[in-house]
Design goal:
The protein is built from 12 helices and 11 strands. By secondary structure, it is α+β, with helices and mostly antiparallel strands.
Length: about 350
């Protein structure tokens, strides 16, 4: 009997495609390939005995369809097996990049990290002040009492000088309690105009609670020039807070006392949690304190050798974690330091 007559091209194609779809491994697919495209397969034997052009074209079309289907199924199974190996085995750094095309595999091999919320706020603070023409200054974390206290006008009886409030390394050296000493160093380096922001980590013996931690980050600004007034300070802080929190957040200023500014004031922002109604986070006041500010005390000018009437300026300081807490609606400051990935992965 003629072998060509015994082969139904449509049935053969359907059977081969069904077998390829049912294959669950590369080995099983290889067996399908041999069965339908091998030297002794029904299709190859029929092609050898072709006697007319029409039959040959029909069988070749079946062969091309089966070959392309097997190739696509082979690539699919290869990716699936590779994904399974990568999930359970070590990453092969010699793996060709062309095999890593699917998004799923890219995420498994190169999971993307996220910036800490403190880093996100720090970058935004830097962008805001660079846009205002300020320079960003790095200070030193280990300071002397001369720059951390004396230069800033802290009297001998001030609580910050106590070992109960600050972390001393010896009698004259401590971990800085604020980034303000960087401003004194800059004032010693050059004369005004000075527009700078010092950003960095500071240390205090604070009791840990929802809004305090003994290690945190600050950004402190200093502007010294001719004719600077308290209105300039207020306008600058209002602009910065609107940039950080948005126009819907309320801002207020309260008079206060700081050793190195006179007059002094504290900026407060309406509580993100209660909207000003009062809650435990804001101690039922409706407001959260953001830091301190004021006009630079003439004592600081004298300390660096300037005349007390030569210039005017303002200074301010705020906590980066406190800023992030208000910006992202984080109820507990302690989460910034717990290294909980479930918390940190929320910020991008």
């Amino acid at each position: 009997m003629d072998k060509v007559a015994t082969v139904d091209p449509d049935d053969l194609e359907k059977e081969a495609l069904a077998a390829a779809a049912e294959a669950r491994s590369l080995n099983a697919l290889a067996e399908v390939r041999v069965r339908y495209l091998g030297r002794r397969s029904a299709l190859k034997l029929a092609l050898r005995d072709v006697r007319d052009r029409e039959t040959g074209m029909t069988l070749n079309a079946v062969r091309e369809t089966v070959e392309s289907t097997l190739a696509a199924r082979e690539e699919e199974l290869a990716r699936a097996e590779l994904a399974e190996r990568l999930a359970t085995e070590r990453v092969d750094v010699t793996l060709p990049a062309r095999l890593l095309q699917t998004e799923e595999l890219k995420l498994k091999l190169r999971p993307r990290g996220t910036l800490h919320p403190s880093s996100l706020v720090r970058r935004d603070v830097e962008d805001i002040f660079l846009g205002l023409g300020y320079e960003i200054v790095d200070g030193r974390e280990v300071e002397t009492t001369r720059y951390n206290f004396d230069a800033l006008g802290f009297p001998d009886w001030h609580p910050s000088r106590s070992t109960r409030d600050s972390l001393f390394l010896d009698e004259q050296t401590l971990l800085r309690t604020e980034t303000s000493p960087a401003q004194i160093h800059k004032m010693e380096e050059r004369r005004p105009p000075i527009y700078m922001v010092s950003i960095g980590r500071v240390y205090r013996r604070d009791t840990i609670d929802a809004t305090h931690f003994p290690i945190f980050h600050q950004f402190e600004g200093l502007a010294i020039d001719d004719g600077i007034t308290l209105a300039d300070l207020k306008g600058t802080l209002l602009y910065v807070m609107r940039q950080l929190y948005g126009p819907e957040r309320e801002v207020r200023f309260r008079t206060h006392y700081f050793p190195f500014t006179e007059p002094s004031m504290e900026p407060d922002v309406s509580c993100f949690n209660c909207g000003g109604a009062g809650c435990p986070i804001c101690k039922h006041s409706g407001w959260i304190e953001m830091g301190g500010s004021g006009m630079v005390d003439p004592y600081l000018y004298e300390f660096v050798g300037w005349g007390p009437e030569e210039y005017t300026g303002f200074a301010f300081g705020m906590g980066i974690e406190r800023t992030a807490q208000l910006r992202y609606g984080i109820s507990d400051l302690r989460q910034f330091w717990e290294n909980d990935l479930r918390f940190l992965r929320q910020f991008r």
